[in-house]
Amino acid sequence: MTMGFAVIGAGTWGQSHAKVYAEHPDARLMWVCDTYLERARQVAALHEAQAFTNDYREALADPAVDAVSVATPDFAHSEIVIAAARAGKHVLCEKPLATTEAECLAMIEAAKKAGVKLMTGFHNRFSPPVFQAKQALQDGELGDVLYIYYRLSDTIFVPTKMLSWAARSSVLWFIGSHVIDTCCWLIGKPVRRVHGLSRSRVLKGMGIDTPDFYSSTLEFEGGAVAVMENCWVLPETLPTIVDVKAEIVGTNGAIFMDTSSHRTIQKYTQHKGSYPDVLVNYQVHGKSMGFGNECIRHFVDCVTQDRTPLATGEDGLRAARIVLAIEEAVRRGAPVDMPA
Amino acid sequence: MTMGFAVIGAGTWGQSHAKVYAEHPDARLMWVCDTYLERARQVAALHEAQAFTNDYREALADPAVDAVSVATPDFAHSEIVIAAARAGKHVLCEKPLATTEAECLAMIEAAKKAGVKLMTGFHNRFSPPVFQAKQALQDGELGDVLYIYYRLSDTIFVPTKMLSWAARSSVLWFIGSHVIDTCCWLIGKPVRRVHGLSRSRVLKGMGIDTPDFYSSTLEFEGGAVAVMENCWVLPETLPTIVDVKAEIVGTNGAIFMDTSSHRTIQKYTQHKGSYPDVLVNYQVHGKSMGFGNECIRHFVDCVTQDRTPLATGEDGLRAARIVLAIEEAVRRGAPVDMPA
Amino acid sequence: MTMGFAVIGAGTWGQSHAKVYAEHPDARLMWVCDTYLERARQVAALHEAQAFTNDYREALADPAVDAVSVATPDFAHSEIVIAAARAGKHVLCEKPLATTEAECLAMIEAAKKAGVKLMTGFHNRFSPPVFQAKQALQDGELGDVLYIYYRLSDTIFVPTKMLSWAARSSVLWFIGSHVIDTCCWLIGKPVRRVHGLSRSRVLKGMGIDTPDFYSSTLEFEGGAVAVMENCWVLPETLPTIVDVKAEIVGTNGAIFMDTSSHRTIQKYTQHKGSYPDVLVNYQVHGKSMGFGNECIRHFVDCVTQDRTPLATGEDGLRAARIVLAIEEAVRRGAPVDMPA
Amino acid sequence: MTMGFAVIGAGTWGQSHAKVYAEHPDARLMWVCDTYLERARQVAALHEAQAFTNDYREALADPAVDAVSVATPDFAHSEIVIAAARAGKHVLCEKPLATTEAECLAMIEAAKKAGVKLMTGFHNRFSPPVFQAKQALQDGELGDVLYIYYRLSDTIFVPTKMLSWAARSSVLWFIGSHVIDTCCWLIGKPVRRVHGLSRSRVLKGMGIDTPDFYSSTLEFEGGAVAVMENCWVLPETLPTIVDVKAEIVGTNGAIFMDTSSHRTIQKYTQHKGSYPDVLVNYQVHGKSMGFGNECIRHFVDCVTQDRTPLATGEDGLRAARIVLAIEEAVRRGAPVDMPA
Predict the structure, then answer these.
(1) Contact call for D146 and B202, based on CB within 8 A
(2) Cβ neighbours of D268 in A, within 8 Å
(3) Cβ–Cβ of B278/A136 closer than 8 Å?
(4) Burial call D274-304: b when 16+ CB within 10 Å, e when fewer
(5) Distance separating alpha carbons of residues A151 and B170, to the nearest angstrom
(6) Strands C67-70 vs C90-93: parallel, antiparallel or unpaired
(7) How confident is the model at residue A237 (pLDDT cuts 50, 70, 90)?
(8) pLDDT in the model for residue A340
């Protein structure tokens, strides 16, 4: 059954949402919305959307729209998601779901009340290596998790050139929330205690008031530990914009992942060396590929086949609560317990 | 438009064909055929095929079948492909198309006469890193190709344990044909001269009369060179069954690929260390992923949307001619020119 | 000037000390001492020492001995070092210097009183990549250190098969002390606060009462942070016995190190895959090579040329104090401040 | 016994020779000679040589000189080496020994007549990973060699900016000779047949008349094959100036080497990413380290202890003959047999 989709927020990821909807046999791309009308227009034209606007309420008012993607800045999710839910649209919201607990709860409540699906865009759950790790854990190949080390960092390009609103988010919200969800999903138990520290120096010195990095520790029920590292000031000379390393040590085995500098392909031109993306979001013969896009396809399938998304609003809430607890631990300089 | 597909040969790759057909919204999996009836039955049951048989002519006689995959041993392609074409079915034939020029020509002729599509399963053209390389070349980022080094080898597991018919093929036919097609596709010019050498020692000593390895050189019109390495006796202690390395050196840049030991993920259990596949043929949440499967999906799209496959019967013929010329060079101990 | 050296403790590293002394043009290997007399005899014979014994006091009584290496188990350093100092011998003591503060202080005091050199075997300071990192920091290429992530772990082989006395040490003492010294040396400022956590499960379940891993955080004066990871239960299927990864993020640049699985050389035999050591302790044409041996050569040079060792007893004391503070933080479940 | 050494040719490697002689306890650095007097002066001053000159005959006339290093351009070895031998000096000549067979023979003859040692600077024989490979072969861990793939290439920096005389040498002479010697040393049998091809385009287009790359094949007595790749036009954006990959496939095992992009250490500054050398020629605490320097130390040991160098003039001759045969094969476009 073909259904109608709208995209709200047509930045980097919003454009991917639009392209996936345009390609999917079961989806029609109805609207592209962006506060920059010209960008909305261009993205709509590129993917042959039915319409575009700089007022998302237009899209929500359209009865041909069954579901929407919300890919606006981190701090601008809740109002739109709640309005979409109230308009009876299923919602795929980019991570983090929101940056306060109250917003997350209101979003979940709105979706529940409206009887619509609310998915959080934790695309790592669709990552081939992360999924293989999940499967190895489920199959018992590694025994129980003793600890995870997970690094997800960006070069300084991201908070200084890619995002205009970095100071209103943080590396912990922006990508740390991915790591939190991934660790929670892999370990499958609640977090009981967190600790963290951060430092503000480089970005602050550039007038962007957000920490340079966070080092955070999650203690799970049952004893498993996750050590997270999230940095926003890696040098731009790195061959990738992102640096991802993970290690899962179990009682019977271990998995090591490197999803950024694995060098499946290295390209050296006259101007620079880079490792083209062949994992997250790329194209082959014009078709959207990569697990970032699989995540969006999953939402289409959930909507058209009436299935529950793999990552729900509750998962978004959980990650937000953990971020907030880490921030509290940073302030206190001491570990913070999380309620059972 | 949904169309009917049959799979002939239900080994490793045939099973992937069946799964892709079963999953594709535009395809129905009608038949699974295998000389081992029990295997046909099991694969059919797993993917909910309509029927199974050990006589592929049954499937060809079924008017509900629009297209077939031929995934039988290398030497057993032509008869089936020709019969399928004559029955008016589109054909996706696994590589190598056939192991004689006459067979290839007859297969192409039969398809042409019947007005059906004939695709050769050169799935590397769908490989994310190979495609990125192709695009970098098309975009002029590397200048003109000076040379390519391409290694595609298997551990000794493949010719001794996986294939019962290794002595009726060779590492050059079995995987070298992939490399040949990839180099031809990347360089985009005809091969004018080839040279090669091989040695027969380890496998021959085990009673499997096929060379241990080939080292081959292709000289293209315009001067580009491709050096190929194909070995079938790598130790089984390698963390992957396959070893793939490629290097493309252009007048203005270079690309390096490692699609086997890139270590995107490493898994160490109590018993062994391995690098799980996250590129060619794997599953995420039960869904067929990887470029091997994208290649099969492409065939579905070509059939249902009446498009020309990216890799045709002619491409299969070209690769076969080059393999045959390399074999001739090995016999002669001297380079062999190829007709313009 | 040629001087006399003795080795006390002829295990893995003690044998390297003996070989380096035997090779060095300025050193004569006088004694090899080990509680297992037969091992002392064999090592002495191999490296043509003048004598061997199971009572180290014999070696200390020999006036031809100018300096000794103490390479006994972690807990058995102080008594011997103090006796050696009192006998007027210079001492190279393997890390950790000792496992209590009182012992470290007594060792330093004894050396000071006797006017002999006391070196702690922190060989990482001689590691080519670590030294390059140190130099890049000194040259200002990276700006100031924001944080370091340093992993140094062993497979479970080490605490279960290599060391008989693992339960009397810990992964934090045994190799964590290396990381502590390296981070302190790289950052060049005092540690003001530490935090840590550990878990005891796998080894304890095997009857070896020592934690499986420690995750520790060092906060330095000035704001730099070091996150350490030390695990003793990695699977034995890893291609190396040790897993070392480090990352140094500065305000202007970053360094990444992998000194265990860099794959400079990979060896696959019929039985296993391994990455032979080409960095720490290996031989080329029969000669001791690697930074572990350079560290010992440095001691010879310090003794024969009357120079101060690069890593002193005070450095050993500093590392021990930090280990003890981490252990305290683990017990408390809260960060521990360190005196200025 | 301390002996006197002179260095003739004070470029990149000549400076390393000077430094090693200056550091070695058994050597005194007497002279530094370079056609650029100022460079000779500077290098002499840096390493506290006794004297410097732009006329190497001065050094040869000095009776305090026992041995000399010849590190002049490839084409300028023979005259100096022969003069040195006639003056009774032992000689360490950088590779290639010479670029004609007649010169090589005359050099060997001169050394023999004078009773002096003649060593060719094939430093790969001292490379830790290459030595480990040699040892694995000698220990039978890999069985017999089936084939070797060996890539040794430079970025275009080398022939265009580092060497003023690239057009008077070639990538095959300059670094291919290293590969040839390494393969011959590893396999331990004579070469019976060679083939090769090269292309001249990029460098020629820049006015430097030397091939961009060579692809060469060596067939050894007994059947082993070595495929060599030597390129001089890799992009300068590579993180290292050199690209080295090797693979040794035996009847029972395999070894893979990457001695350039192993990423033991990666350094990213604001300006570029690079992989600092920790293998060939680097310093730790001011001391010359790396196998390039070990090779020079070996020469000191051979001279002072009257031992035969590991790589002799005959080894240099062998490599030169093979280069010449490859050049002949390139011209002919057909394999060339080598006399038994």
Answers:
(1) yes
(2) 234-235, 237-238
(3) no
(4) bbbbbbbbbbbeebbbbbbbbbbbbbbebbb
(5) 44
(6) parallel
(7) very high
(8) 79
Q: How many CB atoms lie within 10 A of CB B60?
A: 21
**Closest CA–CA distance from residue D253 to any residue of chain C (Å):** 4
Write the Ramachandran bin of A103: left for phi over 0, alpha for psi from -120 to 50, otherwise beta.
alpha
Neighbours of chain D (3+ CB pairs under 8 A): A, B, C
The model's pTM is: 0.97
Q: Are strands A282-284 and A273-274 parallel, antiparallel or unpaired?
A: unpaired
Q: Say whether D276 sits in a helix, a strand or coil.
A: coil
CB B279 within 8 A of CB B293: no
| pLDDT per position as a tens digit, D257-299 | 999 999 999 999 999 999 999 999 999 999 999 999 999 999 9
Alpha helices in chain C (DSSP H): 12-23, 37-46, 56-61, 78-86, 101-114, 128-138, 157, 171, 177-187, 202-205, 291-304, 313-332
Instruction: Return the pLDDT at D283.
Output: 97
Chain D window 247-276: which residues touch A at a Cβ cutoff of 8 Å?
Answer: 268-273
Inter-chain touch B128–A270, beta carbons under 8 Å: no
β-bridge mates for residue B53, sequence order: B33
- Evaluate whether A303 touches A135 at the Cβ level (below 8 Å): no
d(CA B70, CA B103): 15
DSSP C90: E
C225: which chain A residues are within 8 Å (Cβ-Cβ)?
197, 199, 215
Tell me if chain B has a CB within 8 Å of the CB of C234: yes
- The chain B residue lying nearest A248, using CA atoms, is B267
The Cα C313–Cα C154 span in angstroms is 26
Chain D residue nearest residue C254, CA to CA: D268
Mean residue pLDDT of chain A comes to 97
Distance in angstroms (rounded) separating the CA atoms of residues C4 and C50: 10
C-alpha distance from C223 to closest chain A C-alpha (Å): 7
- State yes or no: pLDDT of C1 exceeds 80: no
| C-alpha closest to that of D191 among D74, D320, D105 | D320
Confidence of residue D41 (pLDDT cuts 50, 70, 90): very high
Distance in angstroms (rounded) separating the CA atoms of residues B315 and B303 = 18
Q: What is the 3-state secondary structure (H, E, C) of chain B?
A: CCEEEEEECCCHHHHHHHHHHHHCCCEEEEEEECCCHHHHHHHHHHCCCCEEECCHHHHHCCCCCCEEEECCCHHHCHHHHHHHHHCCCEEEECCCCCCCHHHHHHHHHHHHHHCCCEEECCHHHHCHHHHHHHHHHHCCCCCCEEEEEEEEEEECHHHHHHCCCHHHCCHHHHHHHHHHHHHHHHHCCCEEEEEEEEECCHHHHCCCCCCCEEEEEEEECCCCEEEEEEECCECCCCCCCEEEEEEEEECCCEEEEECCCCCCEEEECCCCEECCCCCCCEEECCEEECHHHHHHHHHHHHHHCCCCCCCEHHHHHHHHHHHHHHHHHHHHCCCEECCC
Percentage above 70 pLDDT, chain D = 100
Residue matched to tokens 């008016």: B88
Considering only CA atoms, which of C319, C332, C331, C293 is closest in space to residue C100? C319
Residue D1 predicted with pLDDT over 90: no
Q: Which of A267, A271, A279, A296 to mutate to test the interface with B (most CBs of B within 10 A)?
A: A267
Handedness of CA B119, B120, B126, B131 (dihedral sign): negative
The residue type found at D314 is: E
State the DSSP H helix or E strand holding residue A245, giving kind and residue range, or none if neither. strand A242-250
CB D21 within 8 A of CB D300: yes
Q: How distant is the Cα of B243 from the closest Cα of chain C, in angstroms?
A: 13
Q: What is the pLDDT of residue B132?
A: 98
First to last CA, chain B: 42
